[in-house]
Amino acid sequence: MTPTPRLTIAQWRVLAAVWLGWGFDVFDAMLLNFVAPNCIPTLLGLPLGSAAARAATSQWIGILTALLLVGWAVGGIVFGHLADRIGRRRALMLTITVYALGTGASAFAPSLGVLVLCRIVASLGIGGEFATGATLIAETVPERHRLVAGAFLQTASPLGLFLATFVTWAIAGRWLPDAPAESWRWVLGAGLAPILVVLLLRSGSALPDAPAPVANRPGLAGSLALLFGPELRAATFSALAMSVLGLFTWWSCNAFLPTIGFGLGTRLAEAQGLSGAVAVSFAESWKAAAGFWFNIGGVAGSMLTVPVARRFGRRGMFAIYYLVGAASLLLAFAPDWSPAVTLRLTFLIGLAIYGLFGAFAFYLPELYPPAVRGLGAGFSFNIGRMGAALGPFLVGAYSARQLDTTAGALTALTWLAVLPATAALLTPFIVETRGRIPERAVAASPASP
Q1: Where are the alpha helices (DSSP H) in 87-194?
Q2: Is 443 exposed, middle or buried (0-12, 13-18, 19+ CB in 10 A)?
């Protein structure tokens, strides 16, 4: 019996670097959503806490999240192709640098227009990180460990959200609760932290980093044509269907859960007669609670994709997660629960809607050969993000027009259950990749950079 190969030190470093990069990717992506109730009204010159400020916040969260996802999609396609040409590690370093600088620069934005520009820059780097990192892991981690490694990679996402929640609470809720018009700048400045991961990657001269052979690397247009050619057409449509519906649902929920938590906390603070810094701190704690339950569910759900995928295959796994996701949205947001119960039920949404993304880290690379693996994973996942851009925009536009924007967001997210239910119906038609071993583009042993 052949012993199961153990991960080498170099492979552990790959896993650690990509895990950190993905966690900080989500950290930087979500910081603006957490500070939006203070940031957007300040830049628009609206009184904090006013009805006009709440309506503007809901509308601009939708717009900014939609812009993030469109830029994310463009960055994923461009950097995915770049990873196939210059190597995974170099492309990964570049994506992290771009999104860290874009987020850090937004802390100094003097106007909403400048903030939008910084957000677009950050989104390009954020979009390229996941597909590049997932491809690097798929090609360096031994087959026996690849499924677990891919699911483990996704656990960095909810932990990145945990970090965003904690940083926002620590700065806006504890350190500067009496300066909400300024605290958001310090929160966004923390977005420079991922530069530390770039330093780790730069020092890792033993990290594998090899692009596909030159003969197998056509230009971007040619590579995209291959994705829709006879051999890969079914794989690409499978990746797109699962990605678009999954990302549409996740981003619609994730973009507004901080606002919902903050709104519920503000409502309770007013009912209890709280005001000033005490009310702000109380509302920030509810925002943190919303993120806590959602992220705990995401961590658990990500790791559960491994046994579920092994037992039921990729098709069965997607069907189960999407059905549970649809049911959890209806259960959490349709009934008139107390605010505390509503927030705790976001655990189930995290378990299914967030946890599902543990599967994308191993499913998408399994679909494509090495020559277009970076582009294939990047294209399908990030076109999914582009389609998902419509979700937050619609939720934001709807809730902004309601007298109670928090109640409006809850109603919109209830109707969102239609999407994962539709995705579950499509799962019998997607490509099953259980047992498929992707050809290696790099050896398991370290390669020169």
Answers
A1: 88-106, 112-140, 143-168, 180-189
A2: exposed
Cα(91)–Cα(80) distance, integer angstroms:
8
Distance (Å, rounded) from C-alpha 419 to C-alpha 322?
A: 9
Domains of the chain plus CATH, in order, are 9-203+220-429 (1.20.1250.20)
Assign 204 a pLDDT band (cuts: 50, 70, 90): low
What pLDDT score does 4 carry?
52
pLDDT digits (tens, 9 = 90+) for 275-284: 777 887 788 7
- The alpha-carbon radius of gyration of the chain (Å, integer) is 21
Please give the Cα distance from 428 to 432 (Å, whole number).
Answer: 9
Looking at residue 315, its pLDDT comes to 93
* 76 within 8 A of 381, measured Cβ to Cβ: yes
Amino acid identity of 17? A
User: Which pLDDT band holds residue 105 (cuts at 50, 70, 90)?
Assistant: very high
CA distance 80 to 88: 9
Q: Specify the amino acid at residue 324.
A: V
3-class DSSP state of 440: coil
Question: What sign for the dihedral angle of Cα 12, 15, 17, 19?
Answer: negative
pLDDT single digits (tens) 319-330: 999 999 999 999
- Count CA atoms within 13 Å of residue 438 on its CB side: 32
Question: According to the model, what pLDDT value does residue 448 have?
Answer: 23
Nearest to 122 by CA among 80, 73, 71: 71
Distance CA 389, CA 399 (A): 16
Cβ-based neighbour number of residue 374 at 10 Å: 34
